[in-house]
Design goal:
- This protein is α+β, with helices and mostly antiparallel strands and about 180 residues long.
- It has two helices and 13 strands.
- It has a four-stranded antiparallel sheet with strand order 11-12-7-13, covered by helices on one side. A three-stranded antiparallel sheet has the order 1-6-5, covered by helices on one side.
- The relative contact order is 0.17.
Length: about 180
């Protein structure tokens, strides 16, 4: 089984075994797709017009792995050419919550009236912009930007009371939109 992926204009790709390096106008992403279980039946090759993912068989498992690798590579292409953006909203009803940013660390203060602050570390390569109740996360790596957004939601998850009544928290309003 073979799957050809065309590399968009303005993007350079280099392949060394299972390591793929993608360069674009916004930056560089590098990823190692090596997996001991799949390395025996999957190959990534560079061709004249793009990349070729070669699977040994036509089984469901091989097709799934080939499709997954292709999806990851396409996300890398979009990341280095357009970037990714997540939008979040700070919502509180009972106690006014505030956010404070110091470098790559965000502190959530007064969540549900609690005395303790909640601290979040933002992964390297993700930019955070806080404007009043709106938070915007941008970056070229979809996984890092998505994980940073998930960390905001997890830090303010409240499970002890009824969610219909206690609606305080930070929530994702827009997911992984490619920037322009």
């Amino acid at each position: 089984m073979e799957l050809n992926i065309k590399v968009p204009e303005g993007i350079e790709v280099s392949v060394e075994g299972f390591k793929v390096k993608v360069n674009g106008k916004l930056g560089t992403l590098e990823r190692d797709f090596y997996n001991r279980g799949t390395a025996s039946y999957i190959k990534i090759e560079k061709t004249a017009d793009g990349l070729k993912i070669v699977g040994k068989d036509e089984t469901k498992k091989v097709k799934a792995v080939v499709g997954t690798l292709a999806a990851h590579l396409r996300c890398m292409f979009i990341g280095v050419s357009k970037g990714y953006k997540y939008s979040l909203k700070v919502h509180y009803v009972h106690y006014p919550m505030s956010l404070e940013q110091k470098g790559n660390e965000i502190t959530v203060k007064n969540y549900m009236g609690g005395k303790g602050n909640r601290k979040l570390k933002v992964p390297e390569g993700v930019k955070v912009q806080i404007v009043k109740q709106d938070i915007t996360l941008t970056g070229i790596d979809k996984e890092k930007v998505g994980q940073a957004a998930a960390n905001f939601e997890i830090a303010t998850r409240h499970t002890k009371n009824d969610r219909r009544r206690f609606q305080d928290g930070i929530f994702i309003t827009e997911k992984a939109a490619a920037m322009k």
